[in-house]
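Exercise 7 asks you to align residues with tokens for two separate proteins.
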Amino acid sequence: MRNIYIKTCCVFLGTYFSILRAEAQQARDSVQTVTTDSLINVAFRKVPNRDVLGAVSSVNVAELINKSYGANGLNNLQSFVGGYAGGGADGALNIWGQAPLVLIDGIPRRAADVRMTEVESVTVLKDASSVALYGSRAAKGVVLITTKRGAEKPLTVDLRVNGGFLVPKSYPNYLNAADYMTFYNEALRNDGLTNKFTDAEISNTRAGINPWRYPDLNLYSSDFLRKMTYRTDLTGEISGGNKDAKYYSNIGLGYNNNLLKLGQSKKANALDVNVRANVDMRINSWLKASVDAVVIMNNEYTARGDFYGAAATLRPNDDYFSYLVPIDRLDPANAQLQAIAKNSNFVIDGKYLLGGLSTRQTSDLSQILASGYIKTKRNTLMFNAGAEADLGNLTPGLTFGMRFSMDYTSRYSEAFTVAYATYQPTWATVNGTDVITNLTQFGNDGIATAENVGSSLYNQTISFNPRLMYQRTFGQKHNVTGALIGWGYMTQVSSDPNNDGGSDYQNIRNTNLGIQAGYNFNHKYYVDFTGAVIHSGKLPNSNRNSLSPTATLGWRISEEDFFKNHVSFVDDLKLTATYSSLKQDLDITSNGADYYLYQGNITTPGTYGWRDGTSSGSYVLYGRGANPNFTFVERKEFRAGLDAFLFKHALNLNANYFHQETKGLLANGLATVYPSYYNGNGSFQPWLNFNNDMRKGVDFSANYTSKIGKLKFSLGFVGMIYKSEATKRDEVYENSYQNRVGKPLDASFGYIAEGLFQSQAEIDAHARQTFGGTLKPGDIKYKDINGDNVIDTRDQVYLGRNGGGASPFTYGVNLTLKWKNLTMLVLGSGQSGAIGYKNSSYYWVTGLGKYSDVVLNRWTPETASTATYPRLSTNSTTNNFQNSTYWMYDNNRFDLRRVQFTYDFNKTAFGKTSFIHGMSVYVNGDNLLVISKERKLMETNIGSAPQTRFYNIGIKATF
């Protein structure tokens, strides 16, 4: 099947470039570019900006990229769209506190599958009325990415080249080996144990006299990491056409290397190739067709082993573990040792054997050095074909369209795996020199001669979209629209069960019939009905179909005489209101793989035997009760909106108030509906539509454009004030302050810390804390909330919102300054009102955990009055490591996302006969700054690759 797709793509590309050559000559000098700036892409159609009724925000990426270059199509969108939060290609996207569906040209696809240079516009559909036509799968919002298409103009070639550096922001700061040994001894003494490391061992380690016998491993040093990496990309765009055929193509190449420079990781890199071709054709006076094809090839080369995981866990002195054993320190008189070095398959840099311990016979570092590599290949083919017929001969304004798409993605890894031996040295001092007198071997060297196929994943999406559209104006004032739309898609995932979780038994499906009917009088009074008849196979037969209706009213109040004659500074003001009831099955899911949750089932948990042992049999139990009334989850929503232009269109305002209730979320009813004996030896509990959520808030955007002399500027500020609440829960708590009902959906519960215990007498007088281990001075003291003289889970209280849906206040800013040919762009975004906990392994050091610099301020009898960290302990006690006010911090931050300077050369600079028709050069920096009280925490990754700043220089030329 894969070969068929490739051949189809090749045939299409050949045909496409034949059309390109033939049509370009006819179009070169006779046509003008057609613009659609006044049209906004919404569900299945384009609407004039003035007639948009829903909570819709659109960004013209084709224009934005001329002053703000990025790799991904959704790059920095949060600086332009209120109510939206999101990062890069597949970062967590969020609309009004929920995860949206991403559509590329109307088809469910990954945002990573489109580059910014390919994108014409991005439209964020926020409210229910705007997404209703897409059915159940779009019930939490839609990000609609529309790619570029050809236009009636001469053949145009745009070439863009970028090159830049990624510089790490920050690394974790861990203690060196000597300090670690010192502090670990202190932790042992705190636990009533004796020191593990002698003063001589600590002194030798600190002096660095023999780093192999007394190791001081720092994985964030220049021995392992480069100072920066580089990324380059090259993009060519070809577009043009005439009234009969229009074409657009994009060919992109991207490459980046890796920070690591140990073993196979020196070669680590990623190479991406993207090819897109979009063609629009006029078959005759009433029939148009389009064909799009995209080929994406991603190739990544990585070493084995988890370097950053090791960096967060591998102690600088790990029981004297050294990942390398120096051959020149082997006893020269020991022939057996010399033979081991001579016969080893893995002599690193000609100097070292691989090190190990009986308790750490291998390590991530050894894997990177010796165990081989992984080549991950991801190939994607995306294909669309569509046609649109003008049925004006039947009745003016009637059209019928059809679109079919097929996407196919394969991902697999080719791995080269080699077994290797490691050695633990035995050191002795001979004549004042450290010598290895013995090697204890773990494992054996192996030989691998061929690559093997590792993990594999195959993903196929097929979609089908027939649509009958009607748009007509009567008497120049009565504007009527209507649509009957079918939309369905199916995604099938097959994967390696050992590495990728196995294949999904049930495909991802969406099937619905969309209905739209709208009327406006002279673009002044609006009424619209939009809905969908949806279907879900997750529900009982009697409940599988439902209607999702929405109704919207609009009023351009600025056209009323009483308004125009008295409010002259308002150029345009439109008010809208919507009530919606969307049904969805997105939230009908369980932690398991069960698809039909409405069904009861039985289990066979074991066997029984007769007392005399003569025979045995199996028995069955109910595993779940059935619920024939199981139905859709409902999103009921009221929204009121405002769109305005003020001061001769210098200021544009948009705001939406939304109040959204999600009803019928899943619960099992054991707390409040069914008696306790329904669950025990087997279960009679069915899944119920029980829990309810509420979300409400205001999103807004304000953009002001003006000039001062020759300086033109534009300033935009967008944001959202957001609140959520659990309005119904299947819960019973002994104390009402622990109820989730009435609290935010992202409520965070924890303990109130009252500082650190200063004495044993204080511990004895305090409520008993039940987290295990023996309390001692320097441990965290918690407040007894319910007064029962015991600290346990009943003393957890609501501490704040963790921003899991969205922070209480999110915002973005964009500033453009243009003076003559020089343009400066600044983008930023921020959030406030949420909390977090310092609960990573960097802060919560337990047992044999690695010590970071936070332990420098640990509690001791001498530092009791100034300590900001609990006492050290080698026990894995959990008393000090609970989510509490002790570890809580405000998650407020502002990110300076991008600064770019662009210089556009005058067209006359190249002369009338030059084949270059335009050129721009630019420099930009991304992720430059975080402003926050907790900047260090927010810029430092623990156990993963570091965050980076990106400094780039680029050039774009038009031919």
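Second protein for Exercise 7:
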Amino acid sequence: MKWLSKQYGAGLAAVGAAMIGALAAGPGVSQAATEAQMEKAKKWLDEFQPSTLSREEQLRELEWFIDAAEEFRGMDIQVVSETIATHEYESNTLAKAFSEITGINLTHDLIQEGDVIEKLQTEMQTKTPIYDAYVNDADLIGTHFRYGDVIPLSDYMKGEGSDVTLPTLDLDDFMGTSFATAPDGKLYQLPDQQFANLYWFRYDWFQRPDLRKRFKERYGYELGVPVNWSAYEDIAEFFSKHVKEIDGERVYGHMDYGKKDPSLGWRFTDAWLSMAGAGDKGIPNGKPVDEWGIRVEDCHPVGSDVRRGGAVNSPAAVYSLRKYIEWLKAYAPPEAAGMTFSEAGPVPAQGNVAQQIFWYTAFTSSMAEEGLPVVNEDGEPKWRMAPSPHGPYWEEGMKLGYQDVGSWTLFKHADPKRRKAAWLYAQFTTSKTVSLKKTHVGLTPIRESDIQHESFTERAPELGGLVEFYRSPARLQWTDTGTNVPDYPKLAQLWWQNVADAVTGDETPQGAMDNLAKEQDRVMERLERAGVQETCGPKLNELRDAQYWFDQPGAPKPKLDNEKPQGQTVAYDELIKSWQ
């Protein structure tokens, strides 16, 4: 403290008393902070700008990390995450900064999301550490709290990890903690990045008087942001079949992907059935039937099949698969059906796609680069993002879309000392010292204070609605996979294989979803029989006539007489005003 006070005495006087008091609670803060390490911390401050903290407050947080890391210096710690821009920044920059500042040798590996799940699953099965900590989707919350392999962070921060838990972590500032909280009320994972699955469209085309006039004449309502799937389908048809060319270029009214690949499963488990309206009302997830079509009673999954009260093969779910296939084949570029998620992602930036119903905001930064056909010379995008339209089975009060929340996860079987060192890094990557800069790099906000910062007010016009969405109450309807899913790795792999059968025509949409429901229930039946889940394991309902469940309130819902009601749109600028 003496050295820091000598160097920054005047600045420290301005630091808030609450911040000083909270950090001073740490054991021996400053005493262990060597002058050399503080010099390194000071040199990194320029990298960590902008920040919601003052530079003096940032130094105080970094000083706490230096002190807390004292007994772990020289250790080699290895963590892993999927490969997206946010994690690339962590791996290339924040891991290096953490290593220099704390003396812990931190390696942050980047692998594909499917590989992260595979490593995680292997470690859960063998109880043999592969990594010291994982960033994995909060989609696994139902898995983690049932198997008992993951440490509830609520317990860890108060108990074993209390001496290495940042006093200024400020969990209330995180936007996604509800996604990582189990039915027992405990937080199991710490959000590191999050991005939503929204509707993307060419704002400039939608504003053109000639196109607006032609659309109104043909469909009887205004060209705008589609509120329902009927309008989305009309707009897709309009651009693909009637407009066809803009400025001499062939254009399409829809973009998607359809290759038989694990990413095809995400296309559906990331709330596609919920967007159609297959599940029940409830935020963050439908109760008792969620967006995977799994019914839960008293926290126990009881079935996926409509004959058990589930909704995987319900009329709404089958409708959602049928529409996906119809739109892919009729309105998307011909090559889309042979693409994976990562291959299809950059296509709208090439400038010939009018809209995309299933678009991840993780692509925002790559879609806003200067020189792209979809970016104006002044740097503002020609496109915008907006809330996703919903299908005819959707009801007010249901979730409307998916939010990916990559979250730090610690295993019980890990070495306690290595776990503490990894937990320090997890907090460093999410701390207020670095989180605002990280958010500007990857555009995957996790803190309310970051998205509300003036730097994002200034940058908002360049980001096509991202800032407005995250500042709006609408974002609450975008959530991750919920706690109804008892074993994400085992169940997720069933989806892409069955969906692919419908895409290729080897199965009808109904047949594909029937098969998926049976296979999903078979996995849950094995989990029930084996008794491997510590709490809230599956207890499958007996099969009964599907009509019994259709006659009950909520999901599964009986088939509608009309699955294509009148299309509805809203003007984008009016939509944004309503959020404000």
